[in-house]
Specification:
Blueprint: H1 9-33, H2 38-65, H3 73-99, H4 107-128, H5 133-161, H6 168-201
Length: about 200
């Protein structure tokens, strides 16, 4: 019998961060589909990034204040860090698009943003269902497939950048955007791996 109850608030906080993350990814996808609304999307993403950051700080602070956590403190910190990194990369991609004044998106950019959005949806589902190993394992498998899909788009896109005889500045702009998007998809897969590790430890 557990004398001191575990602090279950961590699950809710992680769900809230994952929600902000998928909402930001949705806006980033919309940004690439409709760059005419770029400034409005960037501003909305920044709001979500700040909210996710505040929630992440609350998670980290709560680790120190909590006597009995629902799972290992190191795992809580690692999961929080990976989720925060995804949101930061989404925000970074949006800010770069704004700085570069992107007016027309290249197709691979839109495709990568779509893969990223779908990956964040899988992450959100897995985070919200992290007490259920079946949900976590399913999410982790799907995230691996999405990472592979994103990787294929990324490599083809990079090859096209250097073979399309583009202006050097355009190459620099889109290489940086592709890098941010692909890194974010990779981080989503990392979240899936962390969740799977937590699930196995607590089975």
């Amino acid at each position: 019998m557990r004398i001191i109850p575990r602090d279950e608030q961590f699950y809710d906080l992680f769900s809230q961060v994952a929600n902000r993350m998928s909402s930001a990814a949705s806006l980033l996808h919309q940004l690439f589909m409709n760059p005419g609304q770029l400034d409005a999307h960037v501003a909305s993403i920044k709001v979500l990034e700040h909210e996710a950051d505040d929630l992440t700080h609350e998670i980290i602070d709560r680790i120190d204040r909590t006597f009995v956590t629902p799972f290992d403190r190191e795992d809580i910190h690692e999961l929080a860090s990976h989720l925060d990194e995804v949101v930061d990369l989404i925000d970074g991609a949006a800010r770069r698009a704004q700085i570069f004044r992107i007016s027309v998106a290249r197709d691979p950019g839109t495709q990568l943003a779509d893969v990223l959005f779908r990956a964040t949806q899988r992450v959100e589902e897995a985070v919200k269902g992290m007490k259920d190993p079946k949900i976590v394992n399913k999410g982790s498998r799907e995230l691996k497939k999405l990472e592979e899909e994103g990787d294929a788009i990324y490599h083809e896109a990079m090859g096209a950048l250097f073979s399309d005889k583009l202006d050097a500045l355009e190459v620099i702009k889109w290489k940086e955007l592709y890098d941010k998007l692909e890194d974010a998809v990779d981080q989503c897969e990392d979240v899936g791996n962390v969740l799977q590790s937590i699930s196995l430890k607590n089975a």
